[in-house]
Amino acid sequence: MAIVRSKRQSRITGWARYSALVVAALLFLVPFYLLVRSAFMREQDLGSPDFHWLPPVWETSNLTGLFDNPAIPMARSLLNSGLIAVTQTVGVLIVSGLAGYGLARIPYRWSNVVFYGITATLLIPAAVTFVPSFVLVSTLGWISTLRGLIIPGLFQALATFLFRQFFLGFPKEIEEAAFIDGLGYWGTFWRIVVPNSGGFVAAIGTITFIGSWNAFLWPLVIGRDQESWTVQIALSTFLTAQSVQVSQLFMAALVAIVPLLLMFLFLQRWIVEGVERAGIGGD
To answer: Smaller CB count within 10 Å for the chain: N or C?
Structure first.
């Protein structure tokens, strides 16, 4: 009797957990549903007091009009955001990955001092370094250029810290076997460590890509002409003091998140693997 009662309780608990997960998933999907629905609605339908579960008329012209608008270079902005995000992601993975591996594995006198110095920069608010960074970029003549948008973000202290902690938990036996075969630190990093850290690298790369893609303040200050606009700056132009183009804004927001969704769906397995390995293997 006790066994039957225990099985019944476990079954009820399982159903309760699945029900809670379903409710949470539906709540999470509500903003995406509203975004897709509103992106294909007309302005008069969006302003109507009656709620529509689906657009009364699927206004596909919102999509074509988005790219045909001469005042907002949406295609150019998407291209700039993609170029900036990809370049910064690759740069962070290479620079911060090498720095993290060096701090974790290469013994030298000032390694701890360098590590604590990098970690201390995480305590400095971004607003404190914003003006000096802008002055430096302006002095170099990088205003309204992709160099000014990309290069300042090629190194991240947080990514270096995470790489260092992850590499501390990397099995030393594998590296020692590589050293016996004649590989140095450089060869071991690229041929042994990186191929066996794909999940963690994908997780850091995804976080970096999303942060770079969603950046707003720095591109707003540096990208002063339309040729250097990013997608976030283009989105902000739909909200002006004179008018608000609601349907175009929803469509632009939908277009802006599509690359992030595709990237997450493609790298989902590696991201989960990287998070699990970082949580188990990191010190």
So the answer is: N
CA count, 13 A, side-chain hemisphere, 70: 0
Query: Counting Cβ atoms within 10 Å, is residue 219 exposed (0-12), middle (13-18) or buried (19+)?
Result: buried
Task: Specify the CATH number for the domain of residue 102.
Answer: 1.10.3720.10
Do 24 and 163 lie in a common domain? no
pTM: 0.83
- Domain containing 103: what range? 71-280
84 and 170 share one domain: yes
Kindly state the DSSP code that residue 145 receives in the 8-state scheme.
Answer: S
Residue with tokens 């794909």: 198
Cα–Cα distance between 122 and 277 in angstroms, integer?
A: 23
**Quick one: which of 132, 100, 133 has its CA closest to 119?**
100
pLDDT band at residue 4 under the 50/70/90 scheme? low
Please state the three-class secondary structure of 217-279 as a single string. Answer: HHHHHHCCCHHHCCHHHHHHCCECCCCECHHHHHHHHHHHHHHHHHHHHHHHHHHHHHHHHHH
CA dist 230 and 219 (Å) reads: 7
Backbone angles phi, psi at 244, to 5 degrees: -130, 115
